[in-house]
Amino acid sequence: MxxxxxxxxxxxxxxxxxxxxxxxxxxxxxxxxxxxxGPSGCGKTSFLRCLNRMHDxxxxxxxxxxxxxxxxxxxxDNMNPIYHxxxxxxxxxxxxxxxxxxxxxxxxxxxxxxxxxxxxILDGSVENSLKLAYLWDEVKxxxxxxxxxxxxGQQQRLCIARALAINPEILLMDEPSSALDPISTQxxxxxxxxxKNELTIxxxxxxxxxxxxxxxxxxxxxxxxxxxxxxxxxxFTAPTDPLTAKYVKGFFG
Length: 253
Ligand SMILES: Nc1ncnc2c1ncn2[C@@H]1O[C@H](COP(=O)(O)OP(=O)(O)OP(=O)(O)O)[C@@H](O)[C@H]1O
Ligand SMILES: [Mg+2]
Known about the structure:
- The chain is an alpha/beta fold.
- Helix content is 35%, strand content 26%.
- It has a six-stranded mixed β-sheet with strand order 6-7-8-3-9-10, with helices on both faces.
């Protein structure tokens, strides 16, 4: 039996009553990497943000549908979103470290928020998370440095470390390597592939080679709709839908 870590059911997203994501259903198996691909504006970010109720803050957005994590619907009225959100880490396209905080404080922010003060635990988490994000060697001698003084690529890896420090079970990544150089990108890809032993990962990428390299499953979206979702190899070599075929051959997008 396949075990689904996360099920998104009939997700529709509208901004000011204009629909951006149309009735998407997707099931994500535990310990897999899924890539979301599709042309700019097709709704990838809008969909991804539903998976941890990131739209809650924006009152112009309406989300319909269900997001079930470990058999609990994240959108039930009596659900405390904080409990489930803790299971879901997120990394954004633009690095967003807490600018006034040090590297150390960025990584430990989530744990401290959860009341953990033990220095040994915090130190261990900083080292472990920064190693997983391939940033440790570059910053270990100066963890007190303000995050804002890191390069863009380093800031992004810091954000990945920050997301990992709370031990999420699901990691959402929105074009995490679009601001990184090829070497950092490669490191991040290795990280992702290693992390799937412990996590379920959903990543938006415009880089089809990246999708092929790192993901077990790929979903192709177009104009707010899910056109095709299946094993990465099949989607890229023998897609079912002619629109998918056109897109993966680079005819549009
Ligand atoms: N905060 C917002 N308010 C109003 N409309 C929005 C908002 N965010 C996104 N949209 C609209 O929703 C649609 C989908 O946008 P979304 O950002 O989800 O696309 P995307 O696939 O992530 O694109 P990209 O590849 O460029 O990041 C677009 O038409 C966009 O203009
Ligand atoms: Mg986007």
